[in-house]
Design goal:
Strand order of the largest sheet: 1-2-3-4-5-6
CATH class: Alpha Beta
Number of strands: 14
Shape: globular
CATH topology: Metallo-beta-lactamase, Chain A
Strand content: 25-35%
Number of helices: 8
CATH architecture: 4-Layer Sandwich
Structural class: alpha/beta
Bound molecules: zinc ion, fe (iii) ion
Number of domains: 1
CATH superfamily: Ribonuclease Z/Hydroxyacylglutathione hydrolase-like
Radius of gyration: 17 Å
Length: 240
């Protein structure tokens, strides 16, 4: 039994993620901000058990209620942000386990982009749903949190296994790479990733999920070394 993940492009540059658990056939959707856009993928899967939310921003949660109404699935989200999320059926905190068929996700607190942001990690299948905390070769803006919080959040994610599939909330990889090359122009792994991403995008393919081992080699925010440096890089990126 294992969990597989499929990108569902929605809005202008967001990804919802369809998860399937092979042992039971259970299906979940992550951050379904556009109910109409995610419906075909769910219809193909034929059922929906869970709706997982990473954080309260509308480009992640807007379609959740409509999807729940249509499929009768349960909405999972951060207890800390219950007041500003769609009504939660399952409110979770750091370290909680969310059962999904024969598998389960571990909840990881990842403040920085928003205070109540959480990520979900499925050890079976090594799938990480990290919303707007971490992008491929980037991280989210510090809208409600500090560089210290974001640094700690990213370090927790970076500690996951090499083969972890990083399923993030946006297709920002190309512009993230342009910026990252100004931070580390001589990083060979980053130069290689730039080529790979160029090919994927010109073929109209998503650049994510990426692999954690790849992010550790290319993501300037994972490579910052300390929170102060992360804050400097984040500020430079904001003005890039
Ligand atoms: Zn966001
Ligand atoms: Fe977002």
């Amino acid at each position: 039994m294992t969990v597989s993940v499929q990108a569902v492009p929605i809005l202008s540059d967001n990804y919802a993620w369809l998860l399937r658990e092979s042992g039971s056939g259970a299906v979940a959707i992550v951050d379904p901000a556009d109910a109409d856009a995610v419906m075909p993928a769910i219809e193909t899967a034929g059922r929906l058990d869970l709706i997982l939310l990473t954080h309260h921003h509308l480009d992640h949660v807007a379609g959740a209620d409509a999807v729940r109404t249509r499929w009768g699935a349960k909405i999972v989200g951060a207890a800390a942000d219950a007041h500003r999320l769609p009504r939660l059926d399952i409110a979770v905190r750091e370290g909680d386990t969310v059962p999904f068929g024969q598998a389960s996700a571990r909840v990881i607190d990842t403040p920085g982009h928003t205070r109540g942001h959480i990520a979900y990690f499925f050890a079976d299948g090594a799938v990480l749903l990290c919303g707007d905390t971490m992008f491929s070769v980037g991280c989210g803006r510090l809208l409600e949190g500090t560089a210290d919080e974001m640094f700690a959040s990213l370090q927790k994610l970076a500690a996951l296994p090499d083969e972890t599939q990083v399923a993030c909330g946006h297709e920002y990889t190309e512009s993230n790479i342009r910026f990252a090359l100004t931070v580390e122009p001589d990083n060979a792994a980053l130069q290689g990733r730039a080529l790979e991403v160029k090919q994927l995008r010109s073929a109209g393919e998503p650049t994510v999920p990426s692999l954690m081992v790849q992010e550790r080699a290319t993501n300037p925010f994972l490579r910052a070394g300390n929170a102060g440096r992360l804050g400097e890089i984040r500020k430079a990126k904001d003005g890039f």
